[in-house]
Amino acid sequence: MTEMNEPAAELIAEADAATDRLKAVKESIGRVIYGLENEVELCLTAMLSGGHTLLVGAPGLAKTRLVETIAVATGIDTKRIQFTPDLMPADILGSEILEESDDGKRHFRFMPGPIFCRLLMADEINRASPRTQAALLQAMQEGHVTIAGERHDLPKPFHVLATQNPIEQEGTYPLPEAQLDRFLLRVDIPYPTREAERAVLLATTGANTAESVSVLDAAEILKLQALVRRLPVGERVLESILDLLRLARPEESDVDAVREGVSWGPGPRAGQALMLACRARALLQGRLAPSTEDVAALAEPVLKHRMALSFAARADGHTLEGLIKSLADRAA
C-alpha cells in the first residue's frame, strides 16, 4: 500500500471530522422532527452546498417546525416572513427613512429589513405578488441587495428556506421560472408514516416537549461549505450528470417522452446544483467522494422545479416524478 500524500490525508481527516459534526446535527434535529430523515438530509445538503431550499407540502406537515429546528441545530440566526398579497418589497429588503439631526440637517438612514439574517424563512412564498417575489432574486443569487443605488451585503452564510402549499391555490401567484431556478433543491414533505405519526402524537401532546440543541455556528458552516467544494468528483459521476441534463432537455434528448411531453428542460444551473449537492450528500453520509447513486437520488429534488410537462403529457397521465426517475436510471 502506497503512502498517502499529506494534502489527501488532511482532506480525509477534515472530512471525517465534518461527518461526525453533521451526524450530531442530524441527531439534534431528530429530537424534534420525526420520520423526515430523508427530507432533513436534503435540507442540510442544500445548506452545505450554499444554496436555497423550497419546501412543498400540505398544511400541518411541520414545514415551519423543520426550518426552525434546522436554524437551532446549525446555530445561525433566523427570521421569518409571512408572505401575503399586500406584502411589499420594502417589507423584505428594508427602506430608507428621512431623519433630522439636532442641528436641523436632514439625512437618510437605511433601516434593514428581515432579509438581513443568515436563515430566512419565507412562509407561503407563492402568496406574495410577483413584484415582491422578485425582490428576493438579487439577494438569493448575489448575496446583497441594492436600495436607492446603495449596495448592502447580506451576512454569510445566507440561506432561504421557503415553504409552499400545493393544495390551496386561490389567491396565490405561481413562482416564475427565474425564481424557481434560484432554489438549489425542491423538497416535497410527505404525510408521516403510522410509526412516525405515533411518535409525533406522543412527543407533542404531553407535559414536556423535546428541543433541539445548537451544534454548529456560522463560521463552521462556511468551513463545511468550503470543504464540500474541495471533495473530488469522479469522471463517471460528471458524465452521469451531463447525460442526465441532456436527456431532460427536449431539444437534445433522444427520449420520446421528453421531446414530445416536456415544455422546457433544466439549464446549466441544474448541473451546478447536482455537482455540489452530490458532494454534500456524500459528506453527510460519511463518504469522501460522490457516486452515481447520489446523482440518481438527487435528480428529482434538483430537476423537478426546473422542468415542466406539457398539457398533453399531463392529460396522458405522465408525471415529472416518473419521467425524472426513468432518466436518472438511464444516466446512472
Automatic annotation (TrEMBL):
Boundaries of every ATPase AAA-3 domain copy: 52-185
Q: Name one Pfam family in it.
A: AAA_3
GO MF annotations for this entry? ATP binding; ATP hydrolysis activity
Query: Domain of life, per the record?
Result: Bacteria
**Domain ChlI/MoxR AAA lid: start-end pairs:** 258-318
Q: CDD domains of this UniProt entry?
A: AAA
Q: Which PANTHER family match?
A: MAGNESIUM-CHELATASE SUBUNIT CHLD (PTHR42759:SF1), MOXR FAMILY PROTEIN (PTHR42759)
| The protein, known as | ATPase associated with various cellular activities, AAA_3
Q: Which organism is it from?
A: Maricaulis maris (strain MCS10)
